[in-house]
Amino acid sequence: MEILQQSLAELKKQVNRRTQQATHPEVEASVAAILADVQANGDAALRQYSEKFDGVTLTDLQVPQAEIDAAYNNCAPELLAALKLAQRNITSFHKKEISYGFIDNERAGVIRGQKVTPLAAVGLYVPGGTAAYPSTILMSAIPAKLAGVKKIVMVTPPQKEGINPAVLTAAKLVGIDAIYQIGGAQAIAALAYGTETIPQVDKIMGPGNIFVATAKKQVFGTVSIDMIAGPSEIGIIADENAAPAQVAADLLSQAEHDKLARPMLVTTSLTLAQAVNVELEKQLATLPRQEIARASVDNQGFIAIVADLDDAFTLMNAIAPEHLEVQVAEPMTYLAQIENAGSVFLGSTASEPLGDYVAGPNHILPTSGTARFFSPLGVYDFVKRTQFIQYTNAALQPEASAITTLARTEGLEGHARAIEARFPNQPCGYKSRG
Ligand SMILES: NC(=O)c1ccc[n+]([C@@H]2O[C@H](COP(=O)([O-])OP(=O)(O)OC[C@H]3O[C@@H](n4cnc5c(N)ncnc54)[C@H](O)[C@@H]3O)[C@@H](O)[C@H]2O)c1
Ligand SMILES: N[C@H](CO)Cc1c[nH]c[nH+]1
Ligand SMILES: [Zn+2]
């Protein structure tokens, strides 16, 4: 990977250009055309795009239940056991995110509160262009179920040989209501607008490539979305004691997701940087998804050399990576310095794939610098809050003049009179004291 050795200020500019939400006008335009086509032509457009982008002629848009049951029943025991282990750990972590709202009665005669309601219908995007992602089904459906969402549908790109049985097994394990074999921007359009076969949902969740991430951005407003979870990223902060082979392996674990995936190393040691580059070459030579990973390493990846660990954390906060590994001594002591990152892996044992599969925290995470303001997918994404107020007349009386004063200051006489109407027996309605 390219080694960058400049001042911190110059490094910040460089990495900002490379890592922050960029616009891709040609992708934006082709996604907009796909969305409009699906909105106008429904299922027929979905079938056309599946031919064009996935090379699949679809008969059923919805995966038949018999196919899902067969996949589950024939699943290898070790795969089912692995999925169940992941399911247990993801469930125990996400249970802690459940919120029940609140009700307060701090002042006599006043009740205020917030109630939490699950979304009625959500659509989960499960990527499937170059790899199958049963783990992503667990990561999105488990928090949805814990939140109490009643209708959970899933979309995933069609495959010539049928949807991967591991994907179908995971979907059955977590209780997905319907699976539609459709991917890319066209799948996002279907969930946003509805078609003859696919129901419109309230919110679309899940990661995907640049077409999926762009489509989610464009339908936002018609439906809600969780975040921008695009091509994967890994940022590693390492000092001179980190093991080059482990650092390189972890960088490649994310590089193999997508040609646009971003592997990034920030280190205080030029010696480590050079050793990692040697290791990357060695390991790439035998990696099955070598073509994808090489494009990512060569075109998106970089190694930044910094003066000390304080600079390393400053630079990483500017990048706001999806995943951040901290491979230095006493990693926990740096947690307070980390402001922008989707998921943090502390210490050399906490290799990123641990979080992808079994640790329990979510692996659907913000990318392209959006960890500055987005959080990991969680139970909170599948609910909405409604607040409520109840007052007695006696409780309103001492606050009424504040309301009428503020209303009249805003030139909203109707607001003031609505309050005064609560005190009809006082001459000329409510009169403020003094
Ligand atoms: N950020 C996260 O939380 C997270 C988690 C898991 C995976 N990911 C990312 O998900 C992505 C998965 O990507 P993928 O490609 O394997 O699967 P995908 O399902 O996201 O995309 C495949 C679809 O892209 C569409 N497509 C492909 N080329 C197109 C073109 N030229 N024009 C219009 N549409 C086109 C096709 O419709 C195809 O079905 C990777 O980028 C991976 O890094 C991110
Ligand atoms: N690392 C991905 C998120 O960027 C998630 C994933 C799923 N399977 C393997 N990895
Ligand atoms: Zn991964």
CATH class of the largest domain, named: Alpha Beta
> What is the distance, rounded to the nearest whole angstrom, between the alpha carbons of the first and last residues?
74 Å
Fraction in helix: 40-55%
**Helix- and strand-based class?**
alpha/beta
Q: Which segments are poorly predicted (pLDDT under 50) over 5 or more consecutive residues?
A: none
H/E element sequence: EHHHHEEEHEHEHEHEEHEHHEHEEHEHH
Morphology call: globular
Could you describe the 3D structure shown?
With 434 residues, this protein is an alpha/beta fold. The chain folds into two domains: 2-20 and 231-360, 3-Layer(aba) Sandwich (Rossmann fold); 25-227, Nitrogenase molybdenum iron protein domain (Rossmann fold), CATH 3.40.50.1980. It is 44% helix and 16% strand. α2 (25-54) packs across α7, α4 (77-95) crosses α6 (165-174) and α14 runs antiparallel to α15.
Layout of helices and strands:
Elements: E1 2-4, H1 8-19, H2 25-54, H3 65-73, H4 77-95, E2 102-104, E3 110-118, E4 121-125, H5 134-147, E5 151-156, H6 165-174, E6 178-181, H7 184-193, E7 203-205, H8 210-219, E8 224-225, E9 233-238, H9 244-255, E10 262-267, H10 270-284, H11 290-299, E11 302-305, H12 309-319, E12 323-327, E13 343-346, H13 352-357, E14 383-391, H14 393-409, H15 413-420
Parallel strand pairs: 1-11, 4-5, 4-7, 5-6, 7-8, 9-10, 9-12, 10-11, 12-13
Antiparallel strand pairs: 2-3, 3-14
Helix pairs in contact: 1-12, 2-7, 2-8, 3-6, 4-5, 4-6, 5-6, 7-8, 9-10, 9-11, 14-15
The structure holds nicotinamide-adenine-dinucleotide (NAD), L-histidinol and zinc ion.
